[in-house]
Design brief:
The complex is a heterodimer of chains A (197) and B (153). Chain A is an all-alpha fold and 197 residues long. Chain A is built from six helices and no strands. The longest helix of chain A is centred in the middle third of the chain and has 41 residues. Classes of the chains: A mainly alpha (197), B alpha+beta (153).
Chain lengths: 197, 153
């Protein structure tokens, strides 16, 4: 079994999202259980007991909500980093594959060119921003050229394509021009989806 | 479908148990807080007599779900120009009959009222990873004041 946060040959953004949803579900379930104790109609003092030593003892309802919101916030942050790392891994694998296989499409040509330039400057070290995202930036995405904030927009674009059910706002750098589903993206972004398939 | 709805509502109503007398709960909490202040004053008796500590009660309001907004006294301790306040948080808290916060310039320490014996108060020493408490007495009051007040130079 492959666990989240382990290096893997086949990075899978879906598993990260499932892990996030599962963890968030646990947080909300526990929040509901705790708040139910405080619900009207229950005698809070002697009602369904809070476990001895529970960190919630003495907390008011708003504080319980704030506590669980904070937990969910940390989880979202952690998930965002994991998603970014997974997308980077997907992009790097695709970059290497397109360079190695010498495909004839425009993106593969741009990747090979970026690879040649990087090789001259830094040997085998490929940078996500300058080389991979730089090559993507030189192309078009969704029929529009991205003018600014392109790196987060590209990654957010890929994220949106792969997880269209994602919470709005989870990704602050989301590119609003590219909210469409994966079939509306050009090969630049759609390739991320193909790698996953 | 209609039967299922009726059954669901009946179960919810049954699960709620007998209604809580929130007014009695509020009055009981206010009395307990007044008793707590009397206890604090007795613990500080010598310091109050020597004027090392000045004590003043003040009126404040607490708003809670089901109970509403009500007036309750707070207790202010002035120690060498520094102020520490005991501020009731409310009666509707988890696993306890009520709560009062001891708030100073540096930190806040929580006092919780024992759910089974409302005359007893407990001080929260640590909340995470596991709750650690101690009975509220002169020793734990000293600990609380040391924690909430600015450190000695």
């Amino acid at each position: 079994m492959t666990h989240s946060f382990e290096p893997r040959e086949d990075p899978d953004i879906d598993s990260v999202w499932r892990w996030f949803e599962f963890q968030l579900g646990l947080i909300r379930e526990e929040q509901g259980r705790i708040l139910q104790i405080l619900a009207a109609g229950r005698d809070i003092g002697v009602g369904p007991p809070v476990a001895p030593g529970s960190p919630f003892i003495g907390l008011a309802p708003r504080e319980v909500e704030a506590f669980f919101d904070e937990q969910a916030g940390y989880l979202e942050l952690l998930t965002m980093f994991e998603l970014l790392a997974t997308i980077e891994a997907i992009l790097r694998i695709e970059f290497k594959a397109r360079v190695r296989e010498r495909r004839k499409d425009d993106l593969s040509r741009r990747f090979r060119e970026a690879h040649r330039e990087a090789h001259k400057l830094r040997g085998d070290k490929i940078r996500l921003d300058d080389d991979i995202l730089g090559a993507l930036k030189r192309g078009r995405c969704g029929g529009r050229r991205l003018s600014r904030n392109v790196e987060p927009a590209r990654l957010a674009c890929a994220w949106q394509a792969l997880a269209p059910e994602a919470w709005p706002g989870l990704y602050a750098g989301r590119c609003t021009a590219h909210r469409a589903r994966i079939d509306r993206f050009d090969s630049t972004v759609a390739m991320v989806g193909r790698t996953r398939a | 479908m209609g039967d299922q709805l009726t059954e669901f509502l009946r179960k919810k109503e049954q699960a709620a148990g007998p209604p809580i007398d929130w007014q009695t709960k509020r009055e009981s909490f206010v009395r307990s807080v007044e008793d707590l202040y009397a206890l604090v004053k007795s613990m500080l008796r010598e310091s109050i007599a020597s004027k090392a500590v000045t004590v003043r009660t003040f009126e404040m309001e607490v708003t809670e779900d089901y109970i509403g907004t009500y007036a309750i006294p707070g207790l202010e301790l002035t120690i060498g120009g520094e102020r520490v306040e005991l501020r009731p948080k409310g009666a509707l808290v988890l696993g306890a009959a009520g709560r009062v916060d001891i708030r100073g310039g540096r930190d806040t320490v929580t006092l919780i009222q024992n759910a089974n014996d409302e005359r007893e108060w407990t001080i929260v020493l640590q909340r995470v990873p596991h709750l650690r408490t101690a009975p509220f007495d002169r020793e734990s009051l000293k600990y609380a004041l040391e924690r909430v007040m600015l450190p000695l130079p």
